[in-house]
Amino acid sequence: MKLKTALLGAAASLAFAPAAFAERGSDGDVKIIYSQAVSTMNAYLSSGTKDVEVGSLVLEPLAGFNEKGEVIPRLVTEVPSLENGGISEDLKTITWKLIPGLLWSDGTPVTANDAVFTASYCMDPAGGCAQLARYEGVEKVEAVDDMTVKVTFAEAKPNPFQAFVGATSPLLQAAQFANCLGAAASTCTEQNFKPIGTGPFRVTEFRTNDVVQLEANPNYRDPAKPAFATAMVKGGGDATAAARSVMETGEFDYAWNTQIAPEIQATMESGGKGTFVNAFGTLVERIEMNMTDPSSSLPEGERATTKHPHPILSDIRVRKALSMAIDRETLVEIGYGAAGRATCNLVPAPEIYASDNTDCLVQDVEGAKALLAEAGWADSDGDGILDKDGMKLSLLYQTSVNAIRQDFQSIIKQWWNDIGVEVELKTVDGSVFFGGDAGSPDTFQKFYADVEMYANNFDGTDPEPYLAQYTCSKAPSPETQWQGENVNRFCDPAYDAMVVELGKTQDLEKRTALAKKMNDMLTKDSYVVVPLVDRGRLSAHANSLGGVILNTWDSELWNASDWYRMK
User: How many CB atoms lie within 10 A of CB 481?
Assistant: First the structure.
């Protein structure tokens, strides 16, 4: 089966329930709460989901994904395909046609030059683009005319729906960001906090790691939308408090990522004010192993860089032992219930791409101890902590502030203690942890710890750009303002070669086999990524908020232009 028929024809149009709003802004204000506050509205400067999603209210890509994972047009007249000529027969180009008359929120025309600029912005090697994997294999982006964008790939690209597709790859206005290329990208505060966009809203006030105030975009392409005149996104606190603000107090209309225990969910929902929405996609809670030395004894600028391999975790036997000591089924039970599934895979879905990797599902404490002994670790002084060559087997384990994550930290620490590992726990406010501040020592990209835990997922239903994040060149460093998707600094030329091969593999059977091999290379073959739980998305909305459709393949706020107040 050829991918170009199985995937490239996957465009679809949407039909929504009637919103019944008379005119733009007629439904007043909508209030959204994110337990992790927003640090920037520019997805290219943050890998944090909270920044990407809230930014999507303002900045849009040429196309996105609906709740089924199908490609849908946003700023273009149709999704390119082989049939309509938008994708070339040799699969080396994709051509997009902009909607005529499309305007930025400041009233100026959107043109193909904005797309050309956006690609240059992200692909600038000095810029440290957080979404560079979505431009993997792009040779050039050109404006055929004012309304036509042509993307050319270095080799045939069976899945060309990466650059400019999904919330992680939006269009920037060239005029606004003209002076923000390369190393200047992170210095453009006004642009990054108040970008001019094409989305249903525009920013009126941005307070870092606190609140974003927005108003309806007066130049939005549908004159009847959005139904809400204003929107407010409040950040901070924790998942439980966010859920309560919708389900119990009614202070907010929508709460993102209400990652709370199943019994608390049931109690909240019984109040009748709101509804939890849940769906599985590709979101995986995992532990990343730092392949570099984060020690504070190293000079600033050399910590957690490839100049210094990790003194403990560079040994695969240690990484594997840490994974073997974990009981993933217990984690699911205490943290997620039916909203989680134990997994050994970084890519758990779609099903055709999911590896049959199940070895990690059985906890093996004795096996972990034996592996550490084989690696030369022993308790020479009888204090219960293994040591080797005068160094203790001691790890700093960090994650964001979240009740379930703290439960996970506590129990995993105990399992690791049981095999002789000393563990120090660290928690960081999610707004900071998932932010992109190059000056902060506490971001997950900078990774000033030995292991760290968080969840991530990918846009759409094809894992190619997600797997491409782990190439050598995408490791965060001072030279990239600590941006980059390869947070554990894994580097293997063989893996890099597979990324290139996947990018040009058209046959679906071969493509899925290669993706599974890459998944296994990161997980069971090297243990640089230790998956824990395949997490369903869980959020909450007020019963008075209509039009909400949970989307696990794109931004959760993907159809905020269709939200309305139930009468």
Answer: 24
- DSSP H helix total and E strand total for the chain: 15, 20
Cα separation, 248 vs 188, in Å, equals 39
Q: Nearest-CA neighbor of 276 among 47, 538, 2?
A: 538
| pLDDT tens digits for range 251-304 | 999 999 998 877 888 899 888 999 999 999 999 999 999 999 999 999 999 999
Instruction: Give the Cβ contact number of residue 444 at 10 Å.
Output: 25
Give dist(CA 318, CA 377) in Å, integer: 9
- Those residues with Cβ within 8 angstroms of residue 40's Cβ, 6 or more apart along the chain or in another chain: 46, 51, 55, 192, 193, 435, 436
Question: Superfamily assignment of 280-376+389-536 in CATH?
Answer: Dipeptide-binding Protein; Domain 3 (3.10.105.10)
394: β partners: 422
Phi, psi of 135, rounded to the nearest 5 degrees: -110, 15
Residue 151 tokens read as 């993307």
- Contacts of residue 18, defined as CB under 8 A and 6 or more positions apart, other chains included, come to none
Whether the bond between 109 and the residue before it is cis, its omega within 30 degrees of 0, is no
Q: How far apart are CA 91 and CA 52, in angstroms?
A: 29
Q: How far is CA 498 from the centre of its chain?
A: 22
Contact 217, 105 (CB under 8 A): yes
Distance CA 354, CA 323 (A): 19
pTM for this predicted structure:
0.86
Q: How big is the chain by its Cα radius of gyration, in Å?
A: 23
Using CA atoms, how far residue 35 sits from 209, 254, 298, 392, 408, in Å, is 10, 11, 34, 36, 18
**Chain-centre distance for alpha carbon 468:** 13
**Cα 231 from chain centroid?**
23
How does pLDDT run across 366-379, given as a tens digit for each residue?
Answer: 999 999 999 999 99
Are 365 and 325 contacting, i.e. CB atoms less than 8 angstroms apart? yes
Which phi and psi angles does 300 have, rounded to 5°? -60, 135
Please name the residue ranges forming H helices in 56-173. 112-123
Q: Confirm if 322 and 369 have CB atoms less than 8 A apart.
A: no
